[in-house]
Q: What sequence folds into this?
């Protein structure tokens, strides 16, 4: 297959970026999007055309959350419930123009080309996305009773891989879906309920401090999430947040 | 002030070159073939000069240093080549011959890597190619060690099959008397052979048995 790639090139965080156009031929439809970029880079290097295009990637099986690319105006490209590495070239038409951009959000500054610094997410997790009580060894199954539907909801929320597509998709660069998923997966389970109020307070404050925007309920995040995290996690976050504000011990 | 004088021969265009060849006064035309001219380089300028001088009657030799091919070899090129060597000659089925070959090929590839790998950019910026090169440097060392370890284990054990050590039915032939240990290799510095520490396998609760996959 044949493509015309328009790729965002930016040397570093301070440099001015621009789109660069690269024609690419002979791509197999079975190629994944990242493999296609590998082929492009191989050509750029070996023919001394340009510095290879930097893009984040790691596991290439949709579980690490590294490979966030904004492809033709959609995070992770034109398909639902997948990450960029799971997008295949057969999803495009032969001869297509493909526009590839990094995540664009103030809290995610560009490091180089398509690579952004997502450590803002780590800072939110560090602020409260953990359980600090000692839980001991692994307990036998069902010694702590958890209703099936709650376990399912916690599991669904826990499938968030922290890729940042929700922030990139949001016109306000809001991280509510991410924080909602993280708060939900801990708070829905008994082990996480002890610190629930404190956790939600710390994580939301950190999120605001880092410059993520507000949620205006357009749910672009839910539509673009590669792990299909539901917007109900945002409502749960809001409920816990209000509860935390009312019930918080203000010493 | 400088005058530009490109010394274009006089006369109509079609005759300029013929006239010039005849009227050129630097070297007597009869003596031209007695002079050896060595043209260094066969690029655009060198090749043109050599052709013109040859046409004038000089005895032209050309000398050219063949540069490395224009297509640069990337880190991935070497990574894939290394993987292929290991897969072919130190794969699930291996023998002394294939392992000897693997060792030689890896060492040749490593030499070529150090000589001709092309890494764009510098160390003072985000440079994934440099990162890959650093990793590949380790992989070369590790590949050599894997081959050495496979070479010393003269039995068919676990997931690996030494073709010299098999039963008549083609089943694996283990040698528990000589090889019932884990080989741990200690690094001795770059280019130095690692030393082996044996960690004996002692089974207290299970019976050592042989499996037959038929």
A:
């Amino acid at each position: 297959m044949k493509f015309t790639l328009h790729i965002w090139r930016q040397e570093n965080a301070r440099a001015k970026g621009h789109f660069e156009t690269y024609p690419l031929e002979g791509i197999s439809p079975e190629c994944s999007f990242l493999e296609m970029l590998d082929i492009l880079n191989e050509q750029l290097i070996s023919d001394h055309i340009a510095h290879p295009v930097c893009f984040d990637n790691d596991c290439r099986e949709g579980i690490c959350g590294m490979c966030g690319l904004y492809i033709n105006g959609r995070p992770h490209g034109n398909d639902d419930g997948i990450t960029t590495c799971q997008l295949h070239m057969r999803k495009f038409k032969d001869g297509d123009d493909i526009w590839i951009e990094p995540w664009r959000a103030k809290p995610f500054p560009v490091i180089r080309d398509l690579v952004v610094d997502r450590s803002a997410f780590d800072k939110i997790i560090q602020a409260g996305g953990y359980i600090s009580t000692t839980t001991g060894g692994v307990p036998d199954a069902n010694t702590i009773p958890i209703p099936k539907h709650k376990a399912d909801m916690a599991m669904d929320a826990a499938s968030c891989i922290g890729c940042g597509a929700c922030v990139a998709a949001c016109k306000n660069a809001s991280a509510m879906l991410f924080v909602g998923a993280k708060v939900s997966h801990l708070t829905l389970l008994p082990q996480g309920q002890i610190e629930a109020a404190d956790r939600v307070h710390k994580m939301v404050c950190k999120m605001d401090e880092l410059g993520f925007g507000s949620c205006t309920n357009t749910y672009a995040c839910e539509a673009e999430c590669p792990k299909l995290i539901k917007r109900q996690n945002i409502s749960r976050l809001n409920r816990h947040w209000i509860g935390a504000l009312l019930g918080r011990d203000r010493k | 002030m400088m005058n530009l004088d490109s010394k274009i021969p006089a006369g109509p265009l079609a005759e300029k070159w013929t006239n010039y060849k005849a009227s050129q006064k630097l070297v007597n035309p009869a003596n031209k073939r007695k002079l050896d001219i060595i043209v260094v380089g066969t690029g655009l300028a060198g090749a043109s000069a050599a052709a013109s001088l040859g046409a004038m009657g000089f005895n032209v030799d050309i000398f050219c240093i063949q540069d490395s091919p224009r297509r640069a070899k990337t880190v991935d090129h070497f990574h894939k080549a290394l993987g292929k060597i290991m897969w072919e000659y130190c794969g699930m089925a291996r023998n002394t011959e294939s392992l000897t070959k693997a060792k030689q090929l890896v060492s040749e590839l490593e030499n070529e890597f150090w000589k001709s790998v092309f890494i764009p950019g510098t160390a003072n910026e985000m440079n994934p190619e440099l990162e890959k090169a650093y990793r590949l440097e380790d992989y070369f060392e590790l590949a050599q060690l894997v081959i050495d370890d496979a070479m010393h284990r003269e039995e068919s054990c676990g997931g690996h099959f030494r073709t010299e050590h098999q039963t008549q039915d083609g089943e694996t032939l283990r040698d528990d008397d000589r090889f019932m240990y884990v080989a741990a290799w200690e690094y001795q510095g770059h280019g130095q052979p690692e030393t082996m520490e044996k960690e004996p396998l002692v089974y207290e609760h299970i019976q050592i048995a042989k499996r037959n996959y038929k």
